[in-house]
Amino acid sequence: MVNETEKMIIAGARLLPTDAAIYVGTGMPLLASILALKTHAPNLLFVYEGGGVGGQPSGRLPIQVSESLTYEQGTIVGSIDYVMSLAQAGWIQYGFLGGAQIDIYGNLNTTTIGDWEKPKVRLPGSGGGADIASFCEKNIILMRQDKYKFVEKIDFLTSPGYLTGGNSRKEAGLPKNTGPYRVITQLGIYGFDDVTKKLTLLQLFEGFSLDDVQANSGFPIAISKDWTYVSHPTETEINALRKLDPNGLVIG
After folding, report:
1. Which one in 89, 151, 152, 178 has a CA-CA gap of 20 to 30 Å to 165?
2. pTM higher than the cut 0.85
3. Chain center to CA of 229
4. pLDDT tens digits for 180-200?
5. Exposure pattern of 143-172 as b/e (b: 16+ CB <10 Å)?
6. What secondary structure does DSSP assign to 74-115, as a single string?
7. Interstrand relation of 138-142 and 180-184 (parallel, antiparallel or unpaired)
8. Contact by Cβ (8 Å): 136, 194
9. Are the C-beta atoms of 113 and 120 separated by less than 8 Å?
C-alpha cells in the first residue's frame, strides 16, 4: 500500500530530467531528488541552500540543508550567498518549494498567517524561497491541499509565482522563462495556463475526484481538457524510496 506522501514524492521525482541542476531542500524535496538520481536521472547536480554543491548523501537523510552530510561526495562547500548567486546567474534549472498558502497564480506564503502586525501564526519566512522562486527556470511546489492552503489571497507574498497573472511577472522585472512549473498535492498534479498563468489541474491521483479538487480549494481551479490519472508507482520506485527513508521519518 502506497501512502499519499510517497505518491507525492514519486510524482516529484518523475518530473526531473536526466541531467539538470536542482535546488534541494530537506524532507520531500530531498527524497524526490535522490529517488530521481537512483532511478532515471543519474546526472542531476544537487545544489543545497546551505551552500553545498554536488553532494550525494549515502547514509541517513540530512535533517536540514546546512548539515555536513549535504557535502558528502560533493564538489563545492560554499555559502548561502554563493549558491543563491548561481540561480541569479541562470545556472539552476529546477527548484523545489513548499508553502503554508498558495494562490491561483502560484504565489507562496511562508511568512505569516493573518495580519502582519498581529499574526495568528508566525512562520519561518523565506529562507532561500524567494530567490528560488525568482530565478529558477522551473519550480516544483510540494504541499498538502485544503481550503486553508489554497486561498484566494495569500496573507503575505513570500515567494513570487506569476504575481497577478498574464505578463505581470515579466513586467515586475523577474527573468523570463522562470516561475512555477508544477504543483503536487495529495490530490493531483497542477500546471499553469500559458496565457492567464492560472493554476490548472493536469493529473489526478486515483481515489480522488474532480469534486475533491474544488472542495479543497478556496478558489476555482481550471481542469485541463486532457487531464489524466497519475500512473501508479512502480515496484522499483516504491522500493527505492523506502530504502532511502527506512524509518519513515518523511514518508511516514
Report:
1. 89
2. yes
3. 20
4. 999 999 999 999 999 999 999
5. bebeeebbbeebbbbbbbbbbebeeebeee
6. -SEE--HHHHHHHHHTT---EEEE--SEE-TT--EE-SEEE-
7. parallel
8. no
9. yes
Beta partners for residue 159, in sequence order: 108
Tens digit of each residue's pLDDT (9 = 90 or more) over 77-99? 988 889 999 999 999 999 999 99
Burial 95-125 (b: 16+ CB within 10 A, else e): bbbbbbbbbbbbbbbbbbbeeeeeeeeebee
Site of grid cell 530530467: 17
Single-letter code of the amino acid located at 126: S
Contact assessment for residue 64 and residue 92, using Cβ atoms and an 8 Å cutoff: no
- Residue in the structure block whose three cell numbers are 516544483: 140
Among candidate residues 179, 228, 221, 183, the one with its CA nearest the CA of residue 203: 228
Would you call 49 exposed, middle or buried from its count of C-beta atoms within 10 A (0-12, 13-18, 19+)?
buried
